[in-house]
Write a structure and sequence with these properties.
The chain is mainly α and 344 residues long. 69% of the residues lie in helices and 0% in strands. It is found in: Cell membrane.
């Protein structure tokens, strides 16, 4: 009985009701005293993720690669060479950074190629690995075409590369939504309650954040007269990220505690402030001022990065208290019982 009281305290299952009686309307004292929410032997129910800062950095870099590839494809199709170059090189840099952070965090980095041995549609990790593999060649060809020296551009390999750059860039942009969102699916399909409980909203948060970072990078690197598509993309992405994040906060139950307190709260609040500032700068001053465009782009990039670090920190924190595991599980079981009773 004592152990059950420890386990279920906080869900209303660890106390007995007080019965009314005499003594001025005061009831009897509860038989089971208040108890803290602890697991057996004081150990967490779930093992805390062993990932370090490289994983949220990988999440951000992948989003930047996806967003920049869309900006680059739009710039290519509308005749904006400097924005196209910035987007293509930013996409390749984000892709390489993402792969580095992911592979370096593996226990045996030299065996990263084993993730390509099979394709398992039910595994977000397997699907994500193949999305990265499909995205990489297009982004790489388009970026390398921008790096060919002028004196080599008349050679047949350079001409072939130049003709391949546009279809390669467009193919990367077509795969970009999958790259931007699969990391959210990967996190939310773990047992970590801080990620699993927000699985319906997190892909929209990450996709909007990726668009904001890609547009912000284009605004930072391209001249104002060419950065129109980047500004539009950044504004839409930032607005989408803020709305999705607000929706996520409203739908959180008990797990919202880890997002509203501590380090995760500070990171996500800073992300919100920077994203709002970047959105306002993008709409109000970026089209007129090169400095304003650069500052807005930097704010959007920083906000996007802090969003990933905040979500990561919230997930890690949620594994340290067993109530975030037990209470939602019991609530889901109770809801299933009610649904079954209603259906019967």
């Amino acid at each position: 009985m004592g152990r059950e009281a420890q386990l279920f305290q906080g869900s209303g299952l660890g106390k007995r009701r007080r019965r009314g009686g005499g003594g001025g309307g005061r009831g009897e004292q509860t038989v089971v005293p208040d108890a803290e929410f602890r697991s057996y032997y004081g150990r967490p129910v779930l093992k805390t993720p062993v990932w370090d800062w490289r994983i949220p950095a990988y999440l951000f870099a992948g989003g930047l690669a996806a967003g920049s590839s869309v900006v680059a494809a739009g710039a290519d199709l509308t005749g904006r060479p400097q924005l196209r170059r910035a987007g293509r090189l930013g996409s390749l840099a984000g892709l390489l950074g993402s792969m580095y952070f992911l592979v370096s965090d593996l226990g045996r980095p030299e065996r990263f190629h084993h993730m390509l041995r099979v394709f398992k549609p039910t595994s977000p990790m397997s699907v994500g690995t193949w999305i990265l593999s499909a995205f990489g060649p297009g982004a790489g060809i388009a970026a390398v075409a921008e790096l060919v020296p002028a004196r080599w551009r008349r050679t047949w390999p350079a001409r072939l590369l130049a003709r391949s750059a546009r279809p390669a860039g467009v193919s990367a942009a077509a795969i970009a939504p999958g790259l931007a969102s699969y990391t959210a699916v990967l996190l939310s399909h773990t047992a970590v309650p801080g990620w699993n409980e927000v699985r319906d909203e997190l892909p929209f948060v990450f996709t909007g954040s990726a668009a904001a970072s890609g547009g912000g990078f284009g605004m930072l690197c391209a001249p104002v007269e060419e950065a129109g598509p980047a500004r539009v993309f950044a504004a839409v992405g930032a607005a989408g990220e803020l709305l999705a994040a607000k929706r996520m906060e409203q739908r959180m139950g008990l797990i919202g505690e880890v997002y509203r307190h501590g380090k995760a709260h500070r990171l996500r609040r800073a992300s919100e402030v920077l994203t709002l500032a970047g959105l306002a700068g993008t709409v109000l001053v970026a089209r007129r001022s090169r400095t304003g465009a650069a500052a807005s782009g930097l704010a959007l990039l920083a906000g996007s990065a802090l969003q990933r670090f905040g979500v990561f920190e919230a997930g890690v924190e949620s594994t340290r208290d067993p109530k975030y595991v037990v209470v939602p599980q019991r609530e889901r079981l109770e809801q299933r019982r009610r649904d079954a009773s209603a259906a019967g």
